[in-house]
Amino acid sequence: MTEYFDTIDKSHLQNTIKYSQLIDSEYLTKKHSYPTKPVTQYTKSGRINIAYQVIGSGSIDLVYIPGWVSNIDCMWSCPELVDFFSELGKIFRVILFDKRGTGLSDRVVELSTLEERMDDIRAVMDAINSEKAVLFGHSEGGSVSALFAATYPHRTIALITFGVFAKRRYAPEYPWAPTDQERQRVYDMIEKSWGSTGMYLESLAPSKAEDKNFMDWLASYFRSGASPSAAMVLTKMNTEVDIIDILGSIKVPTLLMQRTNDIDVKIEEGRFIAERIQDSKFVEFEGEDHLFWAGNTEEILNEMTSFVTSINQIETYQERLFTIVAARIISTEESKPETKLTIRKLVEQYRGKIIEHNNDTLVALFEGPSKAAHCSIDMSEATKLLNTKLAIGIFIKETAVNQTNFIADDTQTFIKAMLKEALPNQILITQSVKFLLSGAGLSFTPSVNIIQLAGHTHPLYIIIDHVASGTTYTETNKTTLQNESLLENVLQSIDTNLNNEQFGLEMLCREVCISERQLQRKLKAITNKSPNQLICSVRLYRAKELMLLKKYNIAEIAYKTGFSNPSYFSKCFKKEFGMSPSDLQGATKLKQ
């Protein structure tokens, strides 16, 4: 994928240098000293490297969850952002990070779910020993912040958002979101004009429209945050996200902020969300800017600090959001013991918790719908080979924390209703689950059945991607996949064989103990790439890392990353990053 040097030229570089000089001159005229850019560090979220920075020394942690794309290094080339975070750093310990697929974090996995992005937040918090933090989500970052607050209230001091939306596709109940035609125009813009004036970046910060330095930086910020293809994937994923159903499950103190005439996210969207979050505070600011660091930033800072310092923290929350998997088990007496063992190991592999498991039924809790759905698919496939059929239902529900070892009556009622509708070898999900599975690589078809309970109608959908692979589910498979995810094993295998030009699909399947057909399906679901595409992509990213070290020439790097032909390597490199290896080397020298 392309990064900062996608479209770089000398004039753009000069503008960037001038803007850096402008920062220095502006800070020289101010009473406070120029802040030092924090050290960029990395932590692992599964197998993915997440880049983060920490500034400030306040007693309260605040995690900033950026919008569409970000680059935490480039943030420090913008005086307005430097000012904003420096002021926050006087009160909070501020944590900045780039979500997977963007900025300085790993870009191997193109598709990511809200659930995986929640894992990234947790990984960064764990890395800095933060038990609880204020979440500050901007625009798209507000969606994952809201889900995190509902799922992990015990780790959330408060939820703060700016310019957040609940969904990004028009619906009668949410008429402010773009129509499909309007979304298509956005896709076309990304494809044809990514990181250029054709993106109409002025609409994000109208108050800065005449500030050429700011607009040049903003275009560079987007280019360095994501390649055109990565930006396209993120945008399409966002189109499918819908967090409306989980808003009522947010119980932490919540501050929602937005400017009245924001063009990108309508003010009605903020009001809509505020009405559905219990006891939330909604603050409208004058102006049109969608970016919180443009316009009346001092008012925003004052509102944030006043809100956080005035809240009474709740030590424990009685309920939190869980994804619940319920299954009706249809098996022979001979297969029941092995079926039970297989299901238990798969639930553990996906970090789930079984709260009921007998010969006829299973109920398990998961922290998110993606793990629940993929675990259900694997259970269905594995148990078929044991002459067992599963009828599975998946739904999301607030559950009392002290009831995670047994099933409450209202939950039991919903389980019975779902399993009544589910057929053998079928996985049914509720609409709430479907909306949160964007980016999971799954497909759905509407079910003819619906659930009517307590005056509420729950449309159901069928996951249609769970075809039998025909692979023997051996004990080797179970042991290999029990502790680490499939993707982690695949990436480790590719890294181990990085300089082996003969390494391909056949060898990869042997190393991770899975059939070609099953590996193709699973990797497509997780990364939106075929195994061979993923192998090539990982090699190219490793090659790019080696190039930036400036220790080897292009031919040496090609051989070190499994390419026997430097010309073919250059061709693949240009296709992946939008520029040749020699162009990247030249751009790196220019930047220095």
Keywords:
single chain; 592 residues; alpha/beta; eight-stranded mixed sheet; seven-stranded mixed sheet; 21 helices; globular; disordered N terminus; transcription; Alpha/beta fold hydrolase; hydrolase; HTH_AraC-typ_CS
Descriptive report:
Residues 488-587 form the HTH araC/xylS-type domain. It comes from Fulvivirga sediminis. The protein has 592 residues and is an alpha/beta fold. It has helices at residues 10-28, 79-88, 114-127, 141-151, 180-193, 212-225, 228-240, 267-276, 297-310, 336-349, 369-384, 409-421, 431-435, 475-483, 486-496, 505-512, 516-527, 531-549, 554-560, 566-577, 581-591, and strands spanning 41-45, 48-55, 60-65, 92-97, 133-138, 156-162, 254-259, 281-285, 319-330, 353-357, 361-366, 389-400, 426-430, 444-453, 456-463. The strands form two sheets. It has an eight-stranded mixed beta sheet with strand order 1-2-4-3-5-6-7-8, sandwiched between helices. A seven-stranded mixed beta sheet has the order 10-11-9-12-13-15-14, sandwiched between helices. Strand 12, helix 12 (409-421) and strand 13 (426-430) form a beta-alpha-beta unit. Helix 1 (10-28) packs across helix 6, helix 3 (114-127) crosses helix 4 (141-151) and helix 10 (336-349) runs parallel beside helix 14. The radius of gyration is 25 Å and the shape is globular.
